[in-house]
Amino acid sequence: SIGLALPLGVSQAWGSVLFSCLSSLQITQEQAAWLGFSMTMSGCLGSVIVGALLDRFAGCLKLVTVGLMGLAAASFCLFSANAAGGLGLSHRGAISAAYVTGISGGAALNISVPLMFEMIMETLYGWADEGIGAMLSVFLNTVVQIIFLLILSASDADASHLWTAWLTAASMAACCGALLCLRVQYRRLAVDRGTTISEAGCYFDRAVGCY
């Protein structure tokens, strides 16, 4: 739940300062709005496609989610570096890079959200109430957003908000690391397929991790 709430809560709150993070690139508010819209909608479309694929290749939730969160972390690192002028691109190139990295990062994050919810349900199945897991995730997500916005409101209004973009990238990297430590037991999938838990799911999901 924490692994889901941290990057999701930070990124949702970060959307409120997306325009100010890109001020150094001289992007208009309308362009920033279209970027935020594209980040969300690409994730919605990608979620449908990835969900359909994972219906055919069940038991790979962790593998796919780790890859997506790694992509999101890398994309937002490049996004932040580009916004800071660290990539040395022309004005047009910097704007294009902001769109490419922002959309790829936003899509990867939004695709991973339903997968992490599904992973929570698989982990809790058979020994705890799945509804509690979902409720806890939403609660922690809200808490993270509130803390982020409180810190933001206490900062200097005239100061750069670029640190929030780096924080967003760091939260996704932290989530990726936390997922690598998790061993997923597909109890519900084992019941559906009539197999043992040790045979349900791919090797990476079952064996890689420490808890």
UniProtKB/TrEMBL annotation:
It is found in: Membrane. The chain crosses the membrane at residues 31-54, 66-85, 97-120, 132-151, 163-182. Keywords: Membrane, Transmembrane, Transmembrane helix. GO terms for cellular component: membrane. InterPro entries: FLVCR1-2_SLC49-like, MFS_trans_sf. It is a multi-pass membrane protein. This is Major facilitator superfamily (MFS) profile domain-containing protein. It comes from Haptolina ericina.
